[in-house]
């Protein structure tokens, strides 16, 4: 029969599992309370363009390292600034360097969110695996890479949501990281490339006296291209499902 000490230890372990998620939520709340979200906008970039360019020119590697750490933290704390930061990176460091740095930083940040969610939801995962969702969880495990690749390529799904969802079904970390890194490459380099050319957009906005928005940079062609990439990535999964259904019918 368990004693009071055993019960207390179990309660402590349950609370300890929640600590990573509590830290991430507290960090997100703190960032909003400090008003940091106002800095992740093209309006701020337009206002500080000269200062930022001068700082990067004088301290390129230090600035690049700071940008890398900032991106990891922004993704880990689910701060809604990934697109703007990628544009910033392309503008300040060039599309190639920014694309590589952002892809690595975003993958690290996403892995941190995944691990925090998996740790906090450990007990829930065990119950789900044994309950009515066991078949869905098993299916995701069997083709986790294909599912995640589509979710990463398709820009219609929130990045933070896709960071957390795989933890609900016990997707292996290695699969999660690989699908995340490969899946975000097209969008990352697209936004970084947009950032490299944002200088002319900012100049035109200043001449016209209006504020520039991120939506001004994202063309319908880029959005359609990313959706088509997601569709192409989904084809193997769709074919596998059709074959499996045909095999059952036969």
Would you kindly provide a written description of the structure presented here, covering whatever features stand out?
Helix 4 runs antiparallel to helix 5 (82-93) and helix 6 packs antiparallel against helix 11. The radius of gyration is 21 Å and the shape is globular. It is 80% helix and 0% strand. It is mostly helical. The longest helix is centred in the first third of the chain and has 30 residues, at 4-33. It has one domain (4-249).
Number of helical runs? 13
**Spatial extent as radius of gyration:** 21 Å
- The residue fraction in helices comes out at over 70%
- First-last Cα distance: 54 Å
| Poorly predicted runs | none
% residues in beta strands:
under 5%
Tally of extended strands? Answer: 0
Shape: globular
Structural topology:
Elements: H1 4-33, H2 42-47, H3 49-58, H4 60-76, H5 82-93, H6 95-120, H7 122-130, H8 134-142, H9 144-153, H10 159-164, H11 173-196, H12 198-208, H13 220-249
Write a short abstract of this structure.
With 250 residues, the protein is an all-alpha fold. It contains 13 helices and no strands.
Keywords:
globular, 250 residues, mainly alpha
